[in-house]
Structures are given as structure tokens and as C-alpha cells.
Amino acid sequence: MPRFTSPPRRHEQVAADVCAAAELLEVVLGRGQETVPSGPVSPSQLRALLVLERRDGTNLRTLSDALHSRSSSVSRLCDRLEAMGLVTREPSATSRREVELRLSRQGHAVLAELRGARAREVLAVLAHMDPAAVGALSEGLIAFREAARKVESPGVADAPDGPSAAESA
Q1: According to the model, what pLDDT value does residue 165 have?
Q2: What sign has the CA pseudo-torsion 101, 102, 104, 109?
């Protein structure tokens, strides 16, 4: 059961502040995504790549569940990712009826490139903040991430321990 230490109205204001900051963060991260030399990937493609990075060898149904999307839509998404050279499909070792999806070397490289570009954009913003505010932001984000992991939500519980600019996707 969640524990609230401040009045509910205060939590509503903080939630509004977080949402406003998330919108600005999307703009900052989007600028980073647009600078990636390998070309931009759509938000849905990025989410699929992130799931596959964390769940190597997943099948289409599991990916569909993680993305909260229909299998037919995810299959077409994987077709595009495969055509771009970012994903490979391999026969499952356990079932002849299933295909395992994996990030290709190029897929891993695109994610690394994207994370680097996004980190540069975030660093440019952090450089304009007071060091004490940066420290407070870091502590708050760590606490937020820990609380979010307790919420039953695909993608949140599987988020890596270290900071990742791609987690926002």
C-alpha cells in the first residue's frame, strides 16, 4: 500500500510538475534522437528495440504483450525493423511454431548511438542547473525509479538499474 507523507493535493501538484517535466524531457530527448547518424527510429520502433534488448530471444506474443499492442501490428513493426537491419528472426529452439526476435549488432549500435546523443542533450540542460539542484534531481529520480518498479507495469519493472536515457521511450 502506498505511503503518502504529504497532503494529497501536494501529490497532485507534484504529478502535474512531473508530467510537465516529462513533456520537456521528450523534447530534449527527441533532439538527441534526431541527431543520430544512423537515422531516427519511431517511438514505437524504439520501444520494441528496448524490450528486445532486455528480453533477448522473445517471441512475438511476448513482445506484443510488453508493447500493449496487437500481434499483427507488432509483426508489421518487426518486419520494418528487420528490413532496417535492427532485428533478426530465428527459429525457436523449443517450438517449431515460434520465432525468436533478437537485436542485431546494428540494433545494439543504434541504441548505443541514441543513448549517447540523448545523454549529450541532457548534459547540456544539466550544465545550466545549480549543482545542488542537480543532486536533488538525481536523488528524486532514483527514488521515483524505485517506486515505479513497485508498480505492476511492463517495461518499468524491467528497467535497468543504471540510468538510461532510453528508459523514457
Answers
A1: 35
A2: positive
